UniProtKB/TrEMBL annotation, chain A:
Assembly notes: Adaptor protein complex 1 (AP-1) is a heterotetramer composed of two large adaptins (gamma-type subunit AP1G1 and beta-type subunit AP1B1), a medium adaptin (mu-type subunit AP1M1 or AP1M2) and a small adaptin (sigma-type subunit AP1S1 or AP1S2 or AP1S3). Binds to MUC1.
Name of this chain's protein: AP complex subunit sigma
Main function: Subunit of clathrin-associated adaptor protein complex 1 that plays a role in protein sorting in the late-Golgi/trans-Golgi network (TGN) and/or endosomes. The AP complexes mediate both the recruitment of clathrin to membranes and the recognition of sorting signals within the cytosolic tails of transmembrane cargo molecules.
The keyword Nucleotide-binding is annotated on this UniProt entry: no
Domain called AP complex mu/sigma subunit: residue spans: 1-140
TrEMBL record, chain B:
Organism expressing this protein natively: Larimichthys crocea (Large yellow croaker)
Protein name: Uncharacterized protein
Top-rank taxon: Eukaryota
């Protein structure tokens, strides 16, 4: 996979993950073009399209478009499965995920994506392991926030 | 390097087997299939490893068959795995039974309701149709049905696949479907579809009449989308089918009466009416009921084209020339004279020039008119690939050499306008038997520019060029006289020469002429090394003057072995349209005994036959 984009029906970018090195300007340009192209597609159309020299696989979940760019020799159908697996992970983690969850907890979304995909390829196929890793990371985060009493907060003792 | 990994094939096969056979593992499971990601990965790796290796392919055969038959296809996951399996089977050296199984899976995909699956199937079938043609033919009807699908990507794929599947047996049925598709498809497809139809019709037409009918159908339905260079091709086709002239011109005339907005149709029709107008008026046609057309009606139509806003300048040129040709075939010459003289003051320079020249024909050179405007001989189709080659014929000769038999003159304008320009302006070319000194040079310049413009704009109308009066026979005759010269040269052998010989490196050039295009000289360089050490990283580069074009193909190797043990060969193709002396500057870089060596040299001693 070369990159993955998540954007809403209004064309606002919610998440972007790039597995190829590109300058910022190029990324913006690609994002703009791709968002336009995908949003122009009618609902009944095929989930694959050819764009430049890449294949674009996209799937719409509620109001979010999940869009992946894969190379010529990659399997499009399994990419659809990858997108679905990612959505399932988000769903399991957030509990019935919706776009707002991703907007407010985008860093968690990125963490989950990074646990699942590495360098554009799926690195962990077990749902349980991915979620376990995220849970452990969360635990560490909570431990770091030591409980402080009200007085300590104001600065007295 | 792959050999190192091929040892792992049995292990991979075992792992895959376990995956399929083993029980349910909830965390890796996707809709009943255990770990499809891993399965797809293993299949892909097997594909890479088995690609050109018989042993590994054999070891994989069983497991691939097993996966193909046991995977559930009700969900997308199963289909994803099957798709990967099919790709793998196609790429490795599998046995034919397995390949048939793969094609059948793809056929099943085509029947699936899911668009994605159909898209994927069409794409893969396109890849395999070259190798397993017969198997794919079985699914032809499904593919043709996909032409009617609503999705744009599927339609495009189905169209490409249909063209790939057309053959002599199914041409009639397929063409019906394709023409129907042409009617109803989006504009972006029409150009490709039209070109495809022309190609297929050319290759497999069962009869001339069918061919002409098909072409007519394409012109009338998708006329404005047809590519510009197909107009000359069609004209050439029509002249070739001699017995169909009357029928063709009649149908074209009728089509023209209906609709004059589609430029290619109008151009072809006006050309044919110009050529075969007499057949049209005489009303003889065996194939269809003859229609009664008078000369005036025909002239009305052609004049209508001239004044209509829908006609492009090119079309106007065609129709003016057609009117002029009819002056020898029809009896109402006065009317034609009037029309031609009106356009003598037209704003469009092209039309004006033609009209002025035709006027001159009427006034001063009336004796030449019949000879000039005679029927065109059958055009030779040049032997290069299909639609891109423009064939020009010139039936007229210069007035002082009015022979009853007009040799077909085939000048081959290559796709570059420059070649056309230069060929026609090649006054330096030897062997011109022209005796026409008196025509003003300025007119010649304009003609050249006009022809240059014509060919620059995608070569839309080489046909008008031949009927231009012989004020410039020198150019046209150049082609005439140089054509036989080309043929002679093609058969004579060209002696090889030594281009460079220094520091132990010797480079020989051997020549041959590329048959389809006599302007291309194919030079093979042989580099040999007489020193004691090998020359590594050997790179040969060549540069030629601007009037030539050079194409350097890849060398046989980068190492010139020592002591003349072997040679490095490389092929150079030089396009030499101006027939100027071939000169070349070569640059050699190589590493000898660890130190890099670079050298530049000029090669001037090419044998004359290589560039003449």
């Amino acid at each position: 996979m070369q990159f993955m984009l998540l954007f809403s029906r209004q064309g606002k970018l919610r998440l972007q993950k790039w597995y190829v090195p590109l300058s910022d300007k190029e990324k913006k340009k690609i994002t703009r073009e791709l968002v336009q192209t995908v949003l122009a597609r009618k609902p009944k159309m095929c989930s694959f399209l050819e764009w430049r020299d890449l294949k674009i696989v996209y799937k719409r979940y509620a109001s979010l478009y999940f869009c992946c760019a894969i190379e010529d020799q990659d399997n499009e159908l399994i990419t659809l499965e990858i997108i679905h697996r990612y959505v399932e992970l988000l769903d399991k983690y957030f509990g019935s995920v919706c776009e707002l969850d991703i907007i407010f907890n985008f860093e968690k979304a990125y963490f989950i994506l990074d646990e699942f995909l590495l360098g554009g390829e799926a690195q962990e196929t077990s749902k349980k392991n991915v979620l376990k890793a995220i849970e452990q990371a969360d635990l560490l985060q909570e431990d770091a926030e030591t409980p402080r009493s009200v007085l300590e907060e104001i600065g007295l003792t | 390097m792959l050999a190192h990994f091929r040892k792992l094939v049995p292990q991979l096969v075992r792992i895959l087997k376990n995956l399929i056979m083993s029980g349910y593992s909830p965390e890796h499971d996707v809709s009943g299939i255990s770990d499809p990601f891993l399965q797809v990965r293993i299949l892909r790796l097997l594909r890479i490893l088995g690609k050109s290796d018989d042993d590994s392919s054999e070891a994989m055969n069983d497991i691939l068959a097993q996966v193909a038959t046991n995977t559930e296809t009700s969900k997308n996951v199963g289909n994803a795995i099957l798709y990967e399996t099919v790709l793998t089977i196609m790429d490795i050296k599998s046995e034919s039974g397995l390949r048939v199984l793969a094609i059948n899976i793809l056929g099943r995909f085509l029947l699936n309701n899911d668009k994605n699956i159909r898209y994927v199937a069409l794409t893969s079938l396109l890849k395999t149709v070259q190798t397993d043609h017969n198997a794919v033919q079985r699914h032809r009807s499904t593919i043709v049905d996909c032409l009617k699908d609503l999705d744009v990507s599927i339609k495009r794929r189905a169209m490409e696949l249909s063209f790939a599947l057309v053959n002599g047996n199914n041409i009639r049925g397929m063409m019906k479907e394709l023409l129907y598709f042409l009617d109803s498809c989006d504009p972006e497809f029409k150009a490709d579809c039209a070109s495809g139809v022309f190609l297929a019709a050319e290759k497999y037409a069962p009869s001339k009449r069918w061919h002409i009918d098909t072409i007519m159908r394409v012109l009338t339905t998708a006329g404005s989308y047809v590519r510009d260079d197909s107009v000359p091709n069609l004209i050439q086709l029509i002249t070739n089918s001699v017995e169909m002239h009357a029928y063709t011109v009649q149908r074209l005339y009728k089509a023209l009466l209906d609709d004059i907005s589609q430029q290619p149709l109008v151009q072809v029709a006006s050309w044919c009416i110009g050529e075969y107008g007499d057949l049209l008026v005489s009303g003889q046609c065996e194939e269809e009921e003859p229609i009664q057309v008078t000369e005036d009606e025909v002239l009305d139509v052609l004049e209508g084209l001239l004044v209509s806003n829908l006609s492009t300048p090119v079309t106007r040129g065609y129709s003016l020339t057609a009117i002029m040709k009819l002056s020898t075939r029809f009896s109402s010459v006065n009317r034609i004279k009037k029309v031609v003289s009106i356009y003598g003051s037209s704003i469009d320079v092209e039309l004006q020039q033609r009209a002025v020249e035709y006027n001159a024909l009427f006034k001063k050179y009336d004796h030449m008119r019949p000879a000039l405007l005679e029927r065109m001989p059958i055009m030779e189709k040049s032997a290069t690939n299909g639609p891109t080659e423009i064939v020009q014929t010139n039936g007229e000769t210069e007035p002082s050499v009015v022979e009853p038999k007009h040799p077909p003159l085939v000048t081959q304008p290559a796709n570059q306008a420059n070649d056309l320009l230069v060929l026609l302006g090649g006054n330096d070319v030897p062997v011109i038997q022209t005796t026409m000194p008196t025509k003003p040079a300025s007119a010649g310049g304009e003609l050249l520019e006009l022809l240059g413009d014509l060919s620059l704009s995608g070569g839309p109308a080489p046909a008008p060029a031949p009927s231009v009066p012989t004020s410039q026979p020198s150019f046209l005759l150049d082609g005439l006289s140089s054509q036989p010269l080309f043929n002679d040269i093609a058969t004579a052998a060209i002696p090889p020469m030594t281009a460079y010989n220094k520091n132990g490196l010797k480079i020989d050039f051997t020549f041959e002429r590329a048959n389809p295009n006599p302007n291309i000289a194919v030079i093979t360089i042989h580099a040999s090394n007489s020193t004691e050490a090998d020359m590594t990283d050997f790179v040969f580069q060549a540069a030629v003057p601007k009037t030539f074009q050079l194409q350097l193909l890849s060398p046989s190797s980068n190492v010139v072995p020592a002591l003349n043990q072997g040679t490095v060969t490389q092929v150079i193709r030089v396009l030499n349209p101006q027939k100027q002396q071939l000169r070349m500057r070569i640059k050699l870089t190589y590493t000898l005994k660890g130190s890099p060596v670079q050298d530049l040299a000029e090669v001037n001693n090419f044998p004359p036959q290589s560039w003449q």
